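ok trying again, last paste got cut off:
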Amino acid sequence: MERLIEYSPLLFVAFGLLIILVSGKGMIDGRRFVQRALRVPGVVSDVRTTFTGRGEHLRARQRPVLTFTTLDGREVTTEASTVSNLGVGNATEVLYDPDDPTRAMPASGGAGGYGGVVAGIIAIVIGLAFFAGVSSLSAPSTSGDPAGCEIELPDGSSETIDCPPGLGSGE
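nice, full thing came through this time. structure:
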């Protein structure tokens, strides 16, 4: 049980690494989309709002519905793949996937930020700091008898002997 408590701060480290991996993948995917996407003028024809959470934790996410004409002349109306604060009637440049024009977003949406990576790094630092603190608290004390080192005998009992040079606390 003591080992479980000692290593539990490493869950922060694992969680931080997971956040960094997921955020990094999102950033890479976003950049690939932006590099591959075609840019055309468009307009926000509607805004779809979704709510998550309850009470104080209720959050609204607004995704613009974009209307634009592809480079090959098709008119497309689709909900953006990113959230935005653009209002109805606003003109905006639209990035769309040439293979699937319904995958589109305002050009100002970008490829995502570094917020997730920073949060992951913070979780890792907190986890490592707690791990170092818990490990130092549970480390065996060497401030006892300077001449005594304990060894375990084959029958399961232990015996105190003189410590080899460099192992005793009095050295």
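cool. The chain has three helices and seven strands. The CA atoms of residues 19 and 63 lie 24 Å apart.
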